[in-house]
Design a protein that fits this description.
Strand order of the largest sheet: 1-2-3-4-5-6
Shape: globular
Number of helices: 9
Radius of gyration: 18 Å
Structural class: alpha/beta
Length: 220
């Protein structure tokens, strides 16, 4: 990378998504009732393996990164994918170990987690998560004003510009106006990093992408 440029990244997915990929979501839900010891051990083992990989990663590459992160989609539009208690008991303690390790290298930690995860937000903050991505326009509970007023300066929010309706379907001028509105919400608190809510799809014009980043630089 050019001198002075840093990356945002880390080691793959998070604990929940890896466990889900290993056994399947339906089986995981069944294990939670029928095989509780196996259920618990899956999260413990995956968490330990991830921790060891993160140790190696940070030792060798921490200087390349300004922010460390992984993605772990804990929710959907109206709730979490596992019970709130199971997330607190089996998943967030594994997060906390990795987040603490990242902090030892002087880097902030960003969690990408789609869905409505308010029930465990306080637990994520207590675990040391510094930045949450995304602010999802499709979830009415992820209202930027609500997030700002509820969490203030206890966590930073990342993302938020609609990638399904605004970016592909609006004019460059409308895109710029939506960027301004989003930044204005968080400007008094400052706990916000502008970005699109999710991956920018192929139906988005180059003009709208340019308008988005130009507006972000203008209104920052």
């Amino acid at each position: 990378m050019p001198d002075g440029m840093k990356a945002i990244g880390g080691v793959g997915n998070g604990v929940f998504e890896i466990v889900q990929d290993l056994v399947g979501y339906e089986n995981l839900c069944i294990f939670s009732f029928e095989e509780p010891e196996l259920y618990a051990s899956l999260f413990e083992k995956v968490g330990q393996i991830l921790y060891e990989i993160w140790q190696w990663f940070l030792k060798n590459y921490s200087d390349v990164y300004c922010v460390c992160r992984f993605g772990d989609d804990l929710g959907y539009k109206s709730n979490t994918l596992l019970s709130h208690e199971d997330i607190r008991k089996h998943i967030i303690p594994q997060y906390a170990r990795i987040v603490d390790l990242v902090h030892q290298y002087g880097r902030p930690f960003l969690l990408h987690s789609c869905g409505k995860i308010f029930a465990v937000m306080e637990d994520l903050i207590d675990a040391g998560v510094d930045i949450l991505n995304p602010i999802q326009p499709c979830s009415k509970d992820m209202n930027p004003v609500n997030l700002r007023d509820t969490y203030r300066n206890r966590i930073v929010f990342h993302g938020g510009l609609d990638t399904q309706e605004i970016l592909p379907k609006c004019s460059p001028e409308q895109v710029a106006e939506e960027v301004r509105k989003l930044i204005d919400v968080f400007k008094p608190e400052g706990n916000y990093i502008f970005a699109a809510a999710h991956n920018i799809q192929t139906d988005v014009s180059a003009e709208n992408i340019d308008a988005m980043f130009t507006a972000a630089k203008k209104y920052k």
